[in-house]
Amino acid sequence: MATIEQIASNRKALHDYEIVDRLEVGIVLTGTEIKSIRTNGASIREAYARPQHDEMWLVGAHIAEYASGSYQNHEPTRTRKLLLHKKQLRAWQRATTEKGLSIVPLGMYLKDGMAKIELGLGKGRKQYDKRQVIAARDAQRDVQRALRERNR
Questions:
Q1: What angle do CA 22, 26, 30 make, to 5 degrees?
Q2: d(CA 56, CA 43)
Q3: In a domain, 141, yes or no
Q4: For 3, 40, 118, 141, which has the most beta carbons within 10 A of its beta carbon?
């Protein structure tokens, strides 16, 4: 059984995008980056993924400098390489170019000591779509609440 420890999540991505597909990928990190992640020093709120030259890159993710790091400390917002299979990469590249979808990170976690990123292939929502989703969620919540009250 794999142990999973959630490090960072991007709840705003679920609000701004309609997620069509999800994928778990690895990430290439330096020593001070993984130590900083283990002390919960990461944020993926402003990040996105970009395919480039048959590779996938994570842009804009912030991993705080490691407090006990020396001159070898990393740059907090550097571009990091993501690890995924060639077939998956080509399929997601096609989706971004042909269908106009975006690749957004949904979460960062440690799985058996390895840093993983959950990517989502999403279609951007318009403002009125966001309001409709919120209204539907509130209505569903009210129905569930009424059912709970009725069963008491």
A1: 145
A2: 19
A3: no
A4: 118
pLDDT mean values, one per 10 residues, the chain (152 residues): 85 87 93 86 90 92 84 85 94 90 93 92 81 87 89 80
Give residue 22's region: left, alpha or beta (phi > 0; psi -120 to 50).
beta
How far CA 13 is from CA of 78, 79, 107, 123, in Å, comes to 21, 19, 10, 10
Percent of the chain as helix, strand, coil, to the nearest 5: 35, 35, 30
Structure tokens at 66: 């490691």
How many domains, the chain? 1
CATH assignment at residue 36 = 2.40.280.10
